[in-house]
Structure formats: structure tokens, C-alpha cells
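Quick one from the shared queue. A colleague (R.T.) flagged Sterol-binding protein as missing a structural entry in our internal table.

Convert sequence to C-alpha cells.
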Amino acid sequence: MTTTLDDCRAALGRLARNLAGANGEVRRATAVDRSLSCHVTDLDVTFTGRLTDGRIEDVTAAPGPPAERAQIRLAMTGDDLVAMVDGELHFAKAWGSGRVRLEAGFRDLLRLRSLL
């Protein structure tokens, strides 16, 4: 599968809608105010935004790696991004195998562990 920039943008939109409608542990884990970046390595584009009270807001895209260091940083291929959002790839398995990189402060990692 060759994922396009529009496919990635659409996947992030679906993820944002899913998070906004979540309850329980997912809602508690994402009820933070943090800057967020997702570098899509094969397209060499970075999406940035804010994770705020269980929602992803103000998403923009820029070419290249992240210009600034976000508090929560992800890196993966576009295919993996779409597969994870669509439930075809489990995040913990992708992270454990190195297909997805996640960097964040220790407190954020603890908070986000329920999503893994």
C-alpha cells in the first residue's frame, strides 16, 4: 500500500474523532494539554498539533522532521499510521518491534500506557 499525505491527514482526523468520543481509561489518559508531533518518515512530513482534554486540535503539516520538539513525539511510516488508526496494527506490537517510535516524558508515558 502506498499511503499519501491525504490518507495520513484523513487517518489523523479519524483518530481525533475517536479520541473525542472516547470514555473511561482512554479519556483519562488523553485528558492532558501537550504538544504532539507525528513524523511520517516515508513521506518526510510532520503533523503537529495539541492533545487537549482528549481531543487533537490545531493539526498542521510541514515538510521534513519536526521543526520543534513536541512533548509527545511519534515517528512511523504512513502505512503504519493508517493501519494503526484503522485497527489493523496494534500500537504496542508496532512500538515493541521498532516500527513506531514514541518519545515523551516519563509522566506522559505512564499516562499513555493505557492506550498501548
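The domain at 5-115 is CATH 3.30.1050.10 (Nonspecific Lipid-transfer Protein; Chain A).
Helices lie at 5-20, 24-29, 78-85, 91-96, 106-112.
Added to the table.
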